[in-house]
Model the fold of this input.
Amino acid sequence: MNSREKRDQANAGCAGVRLTVQYNFEPEVLIRKFIVLLFLFLWCPFAFAGELSVTFFDVGQGDAMLITTPSGKQILLDGGAPPSVLESGESVFSREVLSLLQAQSITHLDGVIISHGHPDHIKGVMTVLKTIPVARVYFPDCGGAAGEYGRCMDSIKQRHIEYTITHAGTSIDIDPAVRVEVFAPPHNFCFDDANNNSMIVRIAYRAVSFLFTGDANTEEQDWCAEKYGVRLRSTILKIPHHGSYNAVNGTFIRAVNPAVGVISCGENPYGHPHEKTLHFYGKEKTALYRTDLRGTIRISTDGSAYAVTTEK
Done:
């Protein structure tokens, strides 16, 4: 059963303007109306734009999100991974995003964003790159040339796909109606923990914004909170690191101050999401949605209000 939740946000710009047109074909009247329409279009160029939507796919223990901009541009953020078995013999349920994209008839991607090089984020991206044409790939510095990250870089270069190495301060130009800013990792500096080198990206459409955090733990969150403060404020937060114990940073999360949090996780031996995480967001009155409980989650917005739709 689907659930749909709407919350009104403050109207921004001239998104609330209503036009009433009477059928009067006198030349002077038509010219005046044309001038009014032209004025409104130039004054508020995105008044007639569509929706921004983010689909948080249920890929089990991993991340994979499809961002569709008001002009119809499609951006994949991470790609999940095939199921795996740890050395301990414990199973991790996950799946790659390709079949989910194909089910939505996605035949081209305007961009792919890789948060960092861990398998549950990047392995599914490599399968996508082999199958679906991609205009450009964005990934953070600090990835190195080894492991999954290095293999993904090789695949990008072999296929002659354009790519951009991002860091704090990078802007991504996908659609003029939305603002896409990279807040982390730092420029010319890498943390020891690969999770803390995750790309943190904020996407804003008028009064509604999303903050994507990869697997950022408390160290990277501290750095962001100190550097950006209230600039982190966002309506929807992709909860860092699948809701793990060491990804709860009160200073960072209160700076973001999200109304909605989405946890992407599945059957795993790591204890994600941790009870401490769930308790913290409960105290902060953040509405939590989990892919392991609700399936694929879609959040759409016209820039002033947003709607949450779940698979279960």
User: Anything to note?
Assistant: Residues 52-310 form a domain with the Metallo-beta-lactamase; Chain A fold (CATH 3.60.15.10). Residues 3-17 have pLDDT under 50 and may be disordered. The chain has two domains: 4-43, 52-310.
